[in-house]
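New to this. Help decode the following:
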Amino acid sequence: MKWIALMACALLAACHEAPLPAAAPTAASSPPQTPPAPPALPASAAQVQLLSGDGTPAQLVDPYGLAFGPDGTLFVADDQRIWRIAPDGKRSVFVESPELASASGIAVDTQGAVIVADTGHHRILRVAPGGVISVLAGSGKPGWRDGLAKEARFDMPMAVALDLDGNVIVADSFNDRIRRISPTGRVSTLTGGGHPDWKDGSGELARLDTPMDVAVDHEGNVWIADTGNDALRKLTPQGDLITVLRPDPKDTNADLRHPLALALAPDGRVFIAVAARGRVLAVGADGVLVRVLDAQGPRLARPAALAIDPLHMRLAVSDAAGHRVHEIVEHARDTTQGPAPDAPLPDTHGRWPLAPQRSMHEVVGTLGEVRATHHEKLDHLHAGLDVRGDVGEPVLAIAEGKVLSPLAASGFGNIGEALNIGDLGYVHVRVGRSAGGLPFDPKRFIAVRDERGRLLRVRVRRGTVFKPGDVLGTINPMAHVHLQLGAPGAQRNPLALNFIGFADHVPPQIERVEIKGGELQVEGWDQVDGNEERRRLGLYSLSWQLLNAQGQPLPGLEQPREALRFDRLPPDEDAVERFYTPASGITIQGSKVTRFVYRLGMLPPLPAGRYRVRVTGADYSGNVARKDLEFSVN
């Protein structure tokens, strides 16, 4: 965003200094003119209007940082490019260079130059209006060092902002610090230090956890998206770090989870983009969080940046994993969002995530199966493919890919620990650690320790590249690798990757069809070749058709109605209740036996008579099973 503070001050000064023109004389018969309402930023229940991108890397590889210029031009950082989107929507390349590596946050200075967090090279760059690139600060090597700009060190700097004195403020994410680059070329640390933690205070006594974005207001306060702490923080001009908002860490459903981006509005609101559920929030002086963007269906896959054009009151958001840039508006014409359904798949050549990579391994879970959290009520659908392995077995990359998310390694020490590389996610993995928990490959897996030397977590820098067969970690006590394909809210069925040797000649089983309260319910399951006899997998698709007593389709119902198909994960949050009854569950989460009892929907009203409903279940390989239920309507 981040020339807004300077612009706001300029506007304020103009209001105070410029004399008001004398009112023109008005004819007595002229009706009073009502001035048009000034443009306003959205308040709540907003929509996204597509600005750029087709949902694939073909147009936008990794759209991250955003910043408006003074004429309303929107600049977009996109890996090794910075795009320029004119107010009329035309897009052009501002600069393209290998000098940029996983470019992240950007800001526009008073001379029209773009300041860039060159994340992959651990530097801060300046791109002049003519496209000439120069290094503002950073030696190019990761680390932490203050002093002369060219000798200073950063570690995965993610965002930049300009303050009122021309200093560049940097969110130095993996150093857990906020840094400052002065106009004279010196780098200093403003707050944070040591190791990630949460603590208010001054200077190096205060603690941050992976700060991802910064913004400066007209009073000189630095606002911070303290991502690892799920917090909105503020650094005062006096150097005091204050927590403005932070939910109860035990509240896993809190809205403010993993804030990634900030934008300061002229009306005093702070807009916040969060990783959890792809939401955009806003908080005003009253401290109340409001959901500005809260899609119930398709959603932002990974919002990365926000920017405000204060002259035209435009609010833009980048969706890095969705390969799109949007404007947030009250009413949108084109609400297309998220990755394209037909986006290219990773080039895996059919590899498996375990050795041997070119031989079949047992599949023990499929996309769309119902799951519970902590043995409690059913609350989510299984988002990938489970491949059985031994605890401690190495997990291997199945495709070449680059880490795009700054939070690629997550859940340290938990059974859900994971690593995301591009569009692939590897879950139930001790990331970067051996079976005994010892870190390895320190250039790619960053061991974070506390003051006593205890391992706190393992980080993986944005821009890190992995090749097929690289060891990513080891299987944790879950005894399988959960492989995800696609961004959150847009997961696709990993069986589309055509694993070498995968075979499924086993037809599904439909055990029971019944009608309860007019709703059609079906219990069924599947297996694939190589499954143990006790194994139960979910069905890929279910459809139904109403027939008369002679087995002929009813008028208007000549074709079966598909109730569900798990080629991709449904994005809506009520999918569990829509597709499954409470009788469903798996043994590892408390059920006596694994059961999948599906809801296929309400049957239409029927006149009195005898009928038959035919249910067809299928697996991903095309094997089918059918079962009829005869019933009467009185």
Q: What stands out?
A: The chain has two helices and 48 strands. Helices lie at 4-17, 575-579. Residues 423 and 486 are 5 Å apart (CA to CA). The first strand starts at residue 47 and ends at 52.
